[in-house]
Design a protein that fits this description.
Distance between the termini: 69 Å
Number of helices: 2
Oligomer: single chain
Radius of gyration: 23 Å
Number of domains: 2
Structural class: mainly beta
């Protein structure tokens, strides 16, 4: 049986980090190293860098889960934030485990655009939609990520006849509708796209494939 001091250390949360996609931001951690730590409950606090006092996150107070949604609490996207987590088990509380500093605007990952493909005889029309943030306008519609960054779209074509892994960049720019011409009838083509953020020199993952046969 672990003594109190040992139990404190054994259940202390590990690897406290922010994960963020399109400003949907969660704090993640791993349980302490002891086997008993599986039954621990967790308490989450957050603050803006430079503030003295930590704020409790009420929804994540005494929870069994290892993730806490802080999207709403980190909505001032230029501010740097910290999160911290402590665990409790059998009446013993661990010390707090601190995250690294997190600035949403700089560190959120941008998602790929939503791609729609329409084909005519020898061409493909590609329609692109920027990813949405979780934040809403007064009328209730979600604000897209183009509000926060100058985004470029990178559109790639895959000729399935040649090689399913070979992606050819056919467009980079801001247009939301792109026409790819002079394609071969009867051939299956797939389109994937990425969002690129020049100011951060960062690309999204590829969108899901949209395929069509001309």
């Amino acid at each position: 049986v672990l003594e109190n001091q040992d139990l404190q250390d054994a259940i202390k949360p590990q690897k406290v980090e922010f994960h963020s996609l399109n400003f949907n931001t969660t704090l993640h951690w791993q349980p302490g190293w002891a086997r008993e730590a599986r039954d621990a409950l967790y308490f989450v606090q957050y603050k803006v860098y430079g503030q003295r006092t930590w704020q409790n996150k009420d929804d994540c107070w005494g929870i069994p889960s290892h993730v806490c949604d802080l999207t709403h609490e980190t909505s001032d996207i230029q501010e740097p934030y910290y999160g911290r987590v402590r665990a409790t088990l059998a009446g013993v509380y661990s010390n707090w485990s601190l995250s690294c500093r997190f600035t949403p605007w700089r560190e959120t990952m941008i998602g790929p655009p939503v791609v729609t493909v329409v084909h005519s005889n020898k061409s493909i029309i590609v329609k692109l939609q920027a990813p949405h943030s979780p934040y809403k306008r007064k009328r209730g519609s979600k604000i897209t990520m183009t509000n926060y960054y100058d985004l470029l779209y990178q559109v790639f074509i895959i000729n399935n006849l040649l090689d399913e892994q070979h992606r050819v960049l056919v467009y980079e720019g801001k247009d939301k509708v792109i026409k790819i011409q002079d394609l071969r009838p009867g051939v299956s083509y797939c389109i994937v796209a990425k969002t690129y953020v020049p100011v951060l020199d960062r690309s999204s993952a590829y969108s899901s494939r949209q395929c069509t046969v001309l």
